[in-house]
User: Fold this.
Amino acid sequence: MRGVAEAAGALAWLLHEPWVLAAGLVMALRAFDARRFPRNAWLLGFAWLAALAVRAALAPLLPVEPARPAVACAAAAAGLAYAFPGARRWPARVAAAGLAIAGALSPGEPAARASGVLLGAAVALAVLRRLEIFHGLASPHPLPPPRRRVAGAPLRVLLVAGEASADRWGARILAEIRSREPTALAWGVGGPRLRAEGLRCEGDSDALAIVGFTGVATGLPRLAALYRRLVARLERERPDVLVAIDLPDWNAMLALQARARGVPTLFFVAPQVWAWRAGRVSRLAERISRLVVLFPFETPLWERAGVAVACHGHPLAEELATRHTTRAQARARLGLDPSRPLLALAPGSRRSELARHVGPLLDAAARLRAELPDLALALPLASEACEAPLRAAVASSGLDIHLVREGTFELFVAADFGLVCSGTATLEAALAGLPMLIFYRGNPLNAALARRLVRIDRIGLPNLLLGGPDPIFPELFQEQVTGERLAATALAVMRDPARLAALREACTRMRALLPARPTSAAVAEEVLALTRGPERGRSALSEAAPERN
Assistant:
């Protein structure tokens, strides 16, 4: 018995060393659950470090100092047991039991060992439980099947849409749902269009319009508070379906909480796993009841992971099909001179984009005006929240710039050339037939990380969709985005008739790639099918499919 105790004590002393225990946990997690391994490793490591930090803080205040090996082993054991619940996870339970025994038999006074085991387990479990709604480690595995909607009750929809484009698309989908279910109730996160359509907002979509790692870090307290409110209401009201538009990481967390409560989930707009972080496919597969992608080439990526996926066209093509206009009509509607060449300036819709783009864009506009004195300038106001700072920046520049509200597409139709921020606006410009220069300048840290993680060599969606060895539309990224470089690149294209003709031909190809389809109606049908249950839902979709294609 003494030999066993000495061996366990030696193991405990060894395991309390950070690198050894961390390596052991990583190997155990990889063996037990490779699919969720990276997230589990970070979380369990965080809980383990929290336990050691609390021990260091409390040690001077306690009559008996908790043994460090006991704290480390107990925290790791409690984390393993928490992360892998259920009878089928017995290997993790065996490992957890071994760690707990090693901590209990470690050298030292019995009181120090006992207090260490209690402290380590308590702190690790407290940390993991506090963060449960964010990581979902205690969620049942496999997740329970979605429950059916109560017959005769009003349809209840939880809808989350981030940023301006998702707000527009979500509003049309909600309108289509209500045309089929007039008594439907909807709540969640949206912008002015969704609020006008009757969405009861827990938060504004502008709060979620964040780009990059640094944006998430700086906005974390606000994002966490909004997320907690959503999960609390999800628990309280148990909607019939979650409709998640874009925001892949945020909605992935929320989808796990919904599925754990039997709520089916529909994702509209897939994360760009073809560009970076392809490992998200397997993590998201169990959380998505139905996925609707924007582009046909995305479908096989998700089908291979067993996700029920469909493509019903791009909502932007559907939206713009009803707004067909000529160049002369667009200029007349916007009050623009029909005889002057027109440059469209599109800095983006997020606050972080405006902060980095408006300065170089206005500098480029001034340089281009100096070269082309007759050049008219116009800038779309993409969101209400950003209108005031944009107006102030334009006023301080001294440039005569026509500001356009609720008419971005018409501006792109009316313009001769555009400087357009990478994103959905580039698709809108291409569908409008606008030759453009695509640019993006983000946080330097985000850009450095993107260069290491992203697997594509271009930033503009039209260039990605059109393919080819080189981008068709000229692009400038990060440190290249200066007023001087923007102006010089744009001027070279604007003075080259052959290059302008090639860009217009590329816009024609883009319209062929993204034909207008009844996307919103098709997505609404997908939502309603989920609430009917698997069998009825499949039959309803199969009957509706010929109408959508």
Observations:
- Residues 32 and 92 are 7 Å apart (CA to CA).
